[in-house]
Amino acid sequence: MVLLMGIAIILPVLLFGINYLRNPEEALAFKAMGQLPRLFLFVCFGWWLGGKERNWMFFLILAFSGLLLATALDPDLKRHIIQLFKGRRVDFNILNEQHVALFYSIAFIGLLAFSHRAFRISRRSLRWVVFVLCLFAMVICVVAILGTQTRAAWLGLGVCLLVWIVHGTLYLFRQRHQGPIIWIATLVIVLASSSIFLFKDSISHRLASESKTLNALANGDFDNVPYTSIGIRINTWIEAIPWIMERPLTGWGGNVRSTVIDTSDRLPKQVKARFGHFHNVYIEFTLAYGLLGLAVALAPFFWCISTGWRYLHDGKLPLDLLAFTAYGSLLLAVMSTFESYLFFWSGAYVMTVLLTPIYSHLLGCRQPTASNP
C-alpha cells in the first residue's frame, strides 16, 4: 500500500510531464496535483493507530461524533429541522445535501455493523445504555438521509440492502446461530418502513421529478434528455466522452473539467453558469488522470477488501469490520456515479474513515509476534 501511495504522488507529476510535451499551455492551465495523493491519508492514520482494535474503534466513534457536532453547530439548525419535517431539502450548512447524505449513510452502515458490540459489555445497565444510544444514532442518520432528499443515497443504500439480503440468506443456511442477522433484519425493516411512511410525500416527489429523464434514457434518446437534476448530469457526461476518448490513459489534468463544460456547444448557458464539474467520480478521474489515475484511486478499496476477506477466513479479522468496509465502499461506489466525492476533501475524508480501521487492523495482523524462548 505504501508503494501504491508513492505511485499516487508520482503519477500526477508524470502525467503532467506527458501532457506538457503535447501542449505546454494546456498542461499548465489544467495542472492539479493534489486530488490523487490525498486519497491515501488512510495509510498514515492506519499506521498511527498501531493496528489495535481499541484504537480504530475510538477513531470511528470520534469521526461520528465530529459529524454530529458539525450538525449541532449549524447556526440555522432549528430552521433546518423545521424545513426537514415539512418535506424540504436540508444540508445543515455542511457543503451540500449530497455530501451530508454520504456522511450519514456511511455512519448508518457503521452503526448497523458495530452496534452488536454493545452486548459484549459486561455491565448490564451500561450495555443497554450503549445499545439505546446506538438506536437513537441510527434514527438520527435515517432522518438526516431522508432530509437531504438525495436519491443517490437511497439507491446506494438500496443496493447495499439487496446485496446484504442475498448474503444474509446464504449465511442463514450455513449457520446455526441465526439470532444476530435476524435481529439486524428486523431493525432495518422497522427503520425503513417507518421512515418511508413519514417521508412518503418527499420521496414520491423526488422520484417522480425524473420520470421524463428516465423515459428518454430507456428509449435511447440521448439527444433530448431534459435538463433535470439527473438529466444535467447525463448531458455533461456526454460532453466528456470525446475528451476522454482523445486521452484515455493519461487524461488532461485535474482542472480540465470546467473547461470541458464552458467550451461545450450544446449545453445551455444556465447550465454552464451553475455547474463546473461532472458529478461523477469515474468520469472526473478518467478525464483528469486517465484510466491510470482511476485505477490508482480505486485500487485501495479492492486491496483492503480482498486482503480483509482472506484474513477473515484465517480468523484474524472481525466480520463486522469487513462488513463496514465492504458495504461502505459499495455505497460510495454507487453514490460516486452521481457526485464527484473523491475530487473534494469530503471524499478524502470518507475514504479515510472507511479504510483506516481495516488497514490498521491488517497492519497489526502482519506484525510479527515474539515467540516464547
Describe the structure.
The protein is an all-alpha fold. 72% of the residues lie in helices and 0% in strands. It is built from 17 helices and no strands. It has helices spanning 2-22, 24-29, 41-48, 53-72, 77-85, 97-114, 124-148, 151-174, 179-198, 200-208, 211-218, 229-246, 257-262, 269-274, 281-313, 319-335, 345-366. Helix 15 (281-313) runs parallel beside helix 17 and helix 16 packs antiparallel against helix 17 (345-366).
Q: Any descriptors?
A:
single chain; 373 residues; globular
What is the compact description of this entry?
By secondary structure, the chain is mainly alpha-helical.
The biggest sheet, with number of strands, parallel, antiparallel or mixed sense and barrel status, is: none
- Give me the secondary-structure category: mainly alpha
Assembly context of the chains: single chain
Number of helices, counting only DSSP H or I runs of 4 residues or more: 17
Helices, strands, pairings?
Elements: H1 2-22, H2 24-29, H3 41-48, H4 53-72, H5 77-85, H6 97-114, H7 124-148, H8 151-174, H9 179-198, H10 200-208, H11 211-218, H12 229-246, H13 257-262, H14 269-274, H15 281-313, H16 319-335, H17 345-366
Helix pairs in contact: 1-15, 3-17, 4-17, 6-7, 6-16, 6-17, 8-16, 12-15, 15-16, 15-17, 16-17
